[in-house]
Amino acid sequence: MKIATYNVNGVNGRLPVLLRWLEETKPDVACLQELKAPQEKFPEQAIRDTGYTPIWHGQKSWNGVAILSRSGDIQEVRRVLPGDPNDEHSRYIEAIADGITVGCLYLPNGNPAPGPKFDYKLQWFDRFIAHAEELFASGKPVVLAGDYNVIPTEFDAYKPERWVEDALFRPETRAAFNTLLKQGWTDALRKLYPDETIYTFWDYFRDAYSRNAGLRIDHFLLSAGLDNRLTSAGVDRHVRGWEKSSDHGPVWIVLND
After folding, report:
1. Domain tally, the chain
2. CATH, residue 157
3. Of 52, 106, 199, 209, which residue is the catalytic one?
4. Domain limits at 43?
5. What is this structure's pTM?
6. Binding residue per annotation — 149?
7. Within the chain, where are the H helices?
């Protein structure tokens, strides 16, 4: 079973790129973030024409998350992260797809930090940690995939000294990510490639992509048991080089049956 995550950075503006990638790589399940489209503007028919059944939670201009299933076997569980009934951001959606619970997330960026946006990032992170703990304790197979907006270690950034004061790399952010891992989750890419330079994001500025001046901020966390089913993982780095592509590259894992 191949599961992918991709911050599309505008699902309608970059629809040709998304559809080309789906046709080329055919993941069984695809998690999308940063749709930047209200609920009624999601390109449902175009996605279905590619052979996928989608569920999505849109938001005008910002945020937005979706899960696509190639088998059509998908059951929505929730589309709001628990813990704050007043939070209107479309940043989390959860479904059971092919027998696996998949949580698709777009964690807040948090910049500028310190400040209100960083406070919201940490508050959202706390809610996510609490929900993840419940999911892990359930004993069910769970994958938490998406744009975490977290640089876990210095190894995950080109010239990490430039990111010391950034919300993605501040000590509070990395501590929250480590708290999550201590629940027992497995960082899929690092399990398979502990010593390799892996990036999933390359800024549009300063020719970052061609210089491979990137960050690893899109992650797969696997519950107990799924880590033993992990056979391969990677980043479709070449997609970042396509015309009018997102500043993220799709990330994927393969789980055996």
Report:
1. 1
2. 3.60.10.10
3. 106
4. 2-255
5. 0.98
6. yes
7. 15-25, 44-49, 116-137, 171-182, 188-192, 208-211
